[in-house]
Amino acid sequence: MNIPDSFRRLRSGYEAYLLLERGMSANTRDAYMRDADRLSQFLDSAGISVTGAEASDLELFVSDLHDLGIAPRSQARIISGMKSLYRFLHIEGEVDIDPTLLIDGPKLGRYLPDVLSVEEINDMVEAVDLNRPEGPRNRAIIETLYGCGLRVSELCNLEIGRIDFDEGILSVTGKGSKERFVPMSDESIRWIAEYNPWRSKLLVKRGEEPFLFLNRRGHRLTRVMVFYIVRELAALAGIKKKISPHTLRHSFATHLLEGGANLRAIQQMLGHESIATTEIYLHIDNTRLREEILMYHPRNIHYRTGSK
Predict the structure, then answer these.
(1) For a Cys staple, 48 with which of 17, 43, 168, 240, CB 3.0–4.6 Å?
(2) pLDDT digit string (tens) for 149-166?
(3) Which residues pair with 181 in a beta bridge?
(4) Catalytic residue among 77, 83, 175, 223, which?
């Protein structure tokens, strides 16, 4: 992506602000920087610098996001990044007035993520071809994502030395560089042990030695590679839902809640800073409860069948 010269001077300062003052994780910083670059390119094409933009110019940028068909949730994230950029510019004295103050994001309903059933999870793990050399690794990936509720970035950066197999606990560094301890499922422990002999035969690249999940060339797996592994197994299992590694995390939390787990305990295992983030799973549970009532309550059965 070509960065306009007028923005290059400010760009490194903004990235430092996101790291040092906002304390954002690397993934969030990358997203905010991409959004800032997109905005600077849009303005530059109209002959406007980032510091010279007015609210009307930024409203055109927001309209362009809509015209491109970008989903409302992605629009909201980009607008949030734009507001963050101008907050920084205002703090630094690069702009006298923050032009984003009156710009609102798209209205969003509460998003209820897709969740796999226990049967669908079973179908996915059964779809793993254990005759392939990487089969045990792929089975361990699914069992760890679902059995521990990890984010895909946490899985990719999981270090062998941070797993206590005797106690069945692993330590992960989540958003905001916060460490948490997560109980492991028996299946995740079992399949990591099955995968380790294959891993031990790899020629591991320098600097990648600590990481658990590696590709055939001895590099740690990327988020994209894990996405493809999950998507391929879902297709082999005949699952039609649009899923990602995060779907397994959602399923982990939902199944815990349905099984009677305390919401606060789920919050701690997921690494959510606010209980409000975890409460989305209450809405999923309530939605399923309503479906059960509609399906099985006697009054609804009578209505559907027309019986008296």
Answers:
(1) 43
(2) 888 889 999 999 999 999
(3) 171
(4) 175
